[in-house]
UniProtKB/TrEMBL annotation:
Family of the protein in this entry: Belongs to the EF-Ts family.
Main location: cytoplasm
Keyword Protein biosynthesis among UniProt keywords: yes
Compartments, record wording: Cytoplasm
Record domain Translation elongation factor EFTs/EF1B dimerisation: where: 76-280
SUPFAM superfamilies: Elongation factor Ts (EF-Ts), dimerisation domain, UBA-like
GO-annotated molecular function: translation elongation factor activity
Protein name: Elongation factor Ts
InterPro entries in alphabetical order: EF-Ts_dimer_sf (IPR036402), Transl_elong_EFTs/EF1B (IPR001816), Transl_elong_EFTs/EF1B_dimer (IPR014039), Transl_elong_Ts_CS (IPR018101), UBA-like_sf (IPR009060)
Domain of life: Bacteria
UniProt KW keywords: Cytoplasm, Elongation factor, Protein biosynthesis
Function: Associates with the EF-Tu.GDP complex and induces the exchange of GDP to GTP. It remains bound to the aminoacyl-tRNA.EF-Tu.GTP complex up to the GTP hydrolysis stage on the ribosome.
Length: 280
């Protein structure tokens, strides 16, 4: 049992220092016999326990943050996720999202694991800081997605709710300012969710699945077996048109596909890669 009297001022001081709840601060100070540093450690340990206890919880809310380098050749995207929408609007959560993005910009990590290992200004790693905020807020918080992509020109888009972000890599600008056209394509990706840039980028397993589904449907419709392959090939081409970016009908002008729109913007302009992230 503690032999040190814990005052309301002590509890409030620890609360101001850590952001933890009043009762949690009081319990930690009592357990630490009034030692503030030990109490902070206890609260961090509590945060780790909370994080572990909530590890299976769904994280469908959060905030997508994006940074494009000054020369426009690199884009970084961080999707920091939480369990509920109110938490995604809390100042501490939003500050953490910006701190994680800033760490990514400053250190250029290639993977989420490398990002989580970066030390922030206070000496704690990104992962430790996330764990501490998990303990403070009482919800699971994770870096749901991290992207770091480079190319001739990177253009981004963040949806108004902050829960969806897109990075697009363009090549062949030929000195043309493609900022507005790039935004249009990024918004197309956000709205139409293509599976790949072009036909050759579609996963073979996806192609096989689409063909088999088409064949089953065709046979159920009673078409002759000798026609099945030909009709299935037609349905696969329709899949490419609907689901690959360059072949999709351009949303803002249905008279052309995205490939033609890009070529009209700058001859030879194309998209070589994109990243679309959506929370929820």
């Amino acid at each position: 049992m503690s032999t040190v009297q814990i005052t309301a001022a002590d509890v409030n001081k620890l609360r101001q220092q850590t952001g933890a709840g009043m009762m949690d601060c009081k319990k930690a100070l009592v357990e630490a016999n009034g030692d503030f540093e030990a109490a902070v450690d206890l609260l961090r340990k509590k945060g780790q326990k909370v994080s572990a206890a909530r590890s299976g919880n769904a994280t469908s809310e959060g905030l997508v943050s994006i940074n494009i380098s000054a020369d426009g050749t690199n884009g970084k995207l961080v999707a920091l996720a939480c369990e509920t929408e109110p938490v995604s609007k809390v100042e501490d959560f939003r500050n953490l999202a910006q701190a994680v993005l800033a760490a990514a910009v400053a250190n250029n990590p290639a993977t989420t694991e490398e990002l989580e290992a970066i030390k922030l200004a206070d000496g704690r790693t990104v992962a430790e800081t996330i764990t501490e905020l998990t303990g403070k807020i009482g919800e699971k918080i994770v870096i749901q997605e991290y992207a770091n992509i480079s190319g001739e020109k990177i253009v981004s888009y963040i949806h108004s709710n902050g829960k969806m972000g897109v990075l697009v890599v363009f090549e062949g600008t030929n000195g043309v300012d493609i900022t507005e056209a790039g935004k249009d394509v990024a918004m197309q990706i956000a709205a139409m969710n293509p599976v790949a840039v072009d036909k050759d980028g579609v996963d073979p397993a996806t192609i096989e699945r689409e063909i088999e589904i088409a064949k089953d449907v065709i046979r159920q419709e009673g078409k002759p077996e000798e026609m099945v392959e030909k009709i299935a090939a037609g349905k696969l081409n329709k899949f490419y048109k609907d689901s690959t970016l360059l072949n999709q009908e351009f949303v803002k002008d249905g008279s052309m596909d995205v490939r033609k729109f890009l070529n009209n913007t700058a001859k030879g302009l194309t998209v070589t890669a994109f990243k679309r992230v959506q929370l929820g």
